[in-house]
Amino acid sequence: MRPGLRARSIEMLSRSHLFALVGLVASVACAHLPAAGSEIPLRVMTYNIRSGNGDLGGTVAAIRAEAPDIVGLQEVDVHWAERSNFADQATALGQELHMQVRFARIYQLPGISPQDPPREFGVALLSKFPIVDFTNHIITRLSTQETNPVPAPLPGFLEASIDVAGHRVRVFDTHLDYRADPKVREQQVSDMLAFIGDVSSTPTLLFGDLNAPPDAPEIQPLLVRLRDAWPTAAGPGLTDPADEPRKRIDYVLISKHFRVRDASVPSTQASDHRPVVVDLAFRGTRDAGRGKRDAPGSSVPRPHPSSRIPTGHFFAASAAVISCFVALDPDYRSSAI
Description:
alpha+beta, 6 helices, six-stranded mixed sheet, Deoxyribonuclease I, Chain A, 25% helix
């Protein structure tokens, strides 16, 4: 065999081995990702935890028993009060459940002493999938920290983007006003809808203690934009109070991209509310990376095709491998201030 031909054969063999290796690594690393267009199962939960109800371990156990992928929490303390030992409950829950966490404060007060962290109370999001973006929106509230409050803008409407097996899912978490007069809730719904916007193109979830029954007029605009995931076949779905539920005020709302497979209200008294658990499925199409072609008429010299590696394909495969490993890393937290 001529030397030149032998060298070219070795290069071609090395290149084929490289592609085989990259393909093998990608297939192993991405084995947990479903094929584009296939249904993706997703178990979600909404839960008003009442600041752990004096025993955050009970909250952990109640969530762990249901093995949810995403959880929206309300009434979460972060260094807030003696009732929760001034603990950072958001971080503690994330660590105990091995989930990513984001906390969106509603109230913030100075620490008990100058060296103590701020005292915060709000809502939180737990996720087994990577949380890639997070915002704490401001909506109208009637403060519980003032003697004679008037409606005013305050934070605590959590929005996040979650990468679920290569698909972007928008997630919101909220806790609406509890008072009998629905006027503040009516304004809160209007404020939230401005942030939620169009839900036709992106899978969207909303978790929340809405403090209103399903037929309450003030939440109807929200139920038009997003569908109540609770199926009538699953029963009344009562969640409050936990010992003898008489009201359905805790919700999972979904966009049209989701199909409800099952739903339940687990019987637990780890809080004064019971959680709502919904099994969902949705379809989506992941954006496939494509290398850019050279511009027509380009005169840049190129090596012979048989003596170079198609770097566009190589880097696309490498990026896929990296994204798979990133999707498996749950150890990250960010807190809103």
